[in-house]
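Progress against Task 2.4 (sequence-to-structure conversion) is shown through the following example record, which the project officer requested during the mid-term review.
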Amino acid sequence: MLQSPYLLRIGCLLALSLAAGPVRAQVLRRPVPDKLVVLTFDDAALSHATYVAPLLRKYGFGATFFVCEFREPAFADKTKYMSWAQIKDLQRQGFEVGSHTLTHKHVNRMSAAQIGAELDSLEARCRTYRLPRPTTFAYPGYDAGPMSTAVLTARHYDFARAGGARAYDPLTDHPLLIPSFSTSGPDSAKVFSALRQAHGGRIVVLTVHGVPDLAHDWVTTPPALFEQYLRFLHDHHYRVIALRDLSRYVDPAAASRSIVPSYAHLKEPAGFSPPPTTRP
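Structure tokens generated for the chain above:
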């Protein structure tokens, strides 16, 4: 007997719904609440220690600081970057320190062995300064590919953050390819619009560089706007956590097994265009 297109569509939707049930049960350790936000900070900018961390503590917010040692401008310039003692102090305050490679090299420009060496070098710095081994990673330039996710998986990293200017859906986004929104620049409307997307099982992850960024001024988040974002999060009762704390809600091992990696829509958000002559 022939079925109508309507009945076929209903049957397909029912099948998809039943298939999604086991995936949800495997991936989620508990329901994802509305207004869940992850704050991440890149590049070991000096302002992270001197300006950002005190504000985060004022509001009781968690955060992850993805650190590296830039070659240009040189990491030795402590008017622009944190010292390792300051990075250690962030960890003492309860913040997470994650890996951004040692030298901010884009992973798609390296072999698997070179990616491993970059991770090894950053992890060695952490051992030297008695920091926990990183279990989260941020892709320099939001540059991700199959080789890098394979290396991170082999090294037991739980979560890795890219770009893409969209919310993170734990049921469809691989845990080593988490999308995020950038706060760089003066466009506060895009940031507030992004924050309002933290509902219906979706999590908003923000990528913040220096506040301000004295090493790479094109990615600065203006301090006055940054304070507005934090006040908004506080006044509207958002839950603000570090990337590692996603493990309260998401089982990264189960998610890695269940979700096929997709490398589309993870690059730099529209409008982010560092000058080619000074781009690291």
